[in-house]
Each structure stands twice: as C-alpha cells, then as structure tokens.
Amino acid sequence: MIDNHSFEMLVTAQTDTMYRVSMAMLKNEHDAQDAVHDAVLIAYQNRNQLKHAEYFGTWIVRILINVCKKTLKQRKRYADIGDALPDIASRDNPYLSVEIGEAIDSLPPKIRLTVILYYVEDYSVKEIKEVLRIPEGTVKSRLSKGRELLKDRLTES
C-alpha cells in the first residue's frame, strides 16, 4: 500500500511525463491539465490496487491515457453534433468541439438533456422516450429545437 506522502512524491516525479503525454494526445493545454488532474485523482482513489510501487509510473500513465481517450471520445461526440448541423460542420475550426460543448451547455435543461442523450450518449429516440417518460414526438421536437438553437449559437460566433 502506498501512503499519502509516498503517493505525493511518486506523482511529483511523474508530473512532467504525464503532462507531455496528455498534451501529445489532447493538443489542448486546458484539457491536458484536466486529464492529468483526473488521472491523479483516479490513481489516488485506487492506490491500494497497486501492488508494487516500482510500477507506479506505468500505472498512472496508463490511467492518464484512458482519461485522455475518454476526453477524445467526448470531443468526437460533440464534433458529431456539428456534423448534424451542416452550416457549421464545414467550418475549419480546431476548437469547434469546444464551441459545441459550450453551446450545448447553454441550451435549456430539457432540450440539453435530450440532445446529450441522443448525440453524446447515442440513445435512440425510442430509448430517450422511455428514459424521460415523454412522447416520441416530444423527443423529436426537442432534438429539432436543439439543432436549431445550436445552429443559431454556433453560426453567430
């Protein structure tokens, strides 16, 4: 078992490596820092699972890679929403997924939830209907309204 002081020292020794790995994968300083922070938190919560401290470096980098993959998957899902909005999908903007994420966050709660379930979590209209306990037509109208609001918000920037 790794005590708190040892954990802190091991993390400090790996910080530069972790940052470089996350930057290489995410290509965004803010996301890279978030990924490192999340990986350290996950490692801390699971530190009792590591049997040999000498493997700490590879263990925490593996956790970091998984966090980065999750972030990239989330970005792709947001970018997929952009593909559903033809007017903005053609824009050449490397930060489009960030813009889409911010635009989704600004949607009214019911519409935001429906959009996230459909585009981010890959739920079908029927599954959303069951989860939210609303008619299928309501799901479709919320998706339509969500696309319209996203298109408006993303084309004005």
3D architecture notes:
- The chain is mainly alpha-helical.
- It folds into 2 domains: 4-71, Rna Polymerase Sigma Factor, Chain: A; 84-155, Winged helix-like DNA-binding domain superfamily/Winged helix DNA-binding domain (Arc Repressor Mutant, subunit A).
- 78% of the residues lie in helices and 0% in strands.
- It is built from 8 helices and no strands.
- The chain has helices spanning 4-26, 29-45, 56-83, 86-89, 96-105, 109-120, 125-132, 136-155.
- It is elongated, with a radius of gyration of 20 Å.
Helix content: over 70%
Strand content: under 5%
The Rg value, from CA coordinates, equals 20 Å
CATH level 3 topology of the largest domain:
Arc Repressor Mutant, subunit A
Biggest β-sheet: count, sense, barrel? none
**Which word captures the global form?**
elongated
Q: Please give the domain count.
A: 2
Q: H/E element string? A: HHHHHHHH
Please give the count of helices: 8
- The CATH superfamily of the largest domain turns out to be Winged helix-like DNA-binding domain superfamily/Winged helix DNA-binding domain
Q: How would you classify the helix and strand content by structural class?
A: mainly alpha
Supply the CATH architecture of the largest domain: Orthogonal Bundle
End-to-end CA span: 51 Å
SSE topology sketch:
Elements lengths: L3 H23 L2 H17 L10 H28 L2 H4 L6 H10 L3 H12 L4 H8 L3 H20 L2
Could you give a quick summary of the protein structure above?
The chain is mainly α.
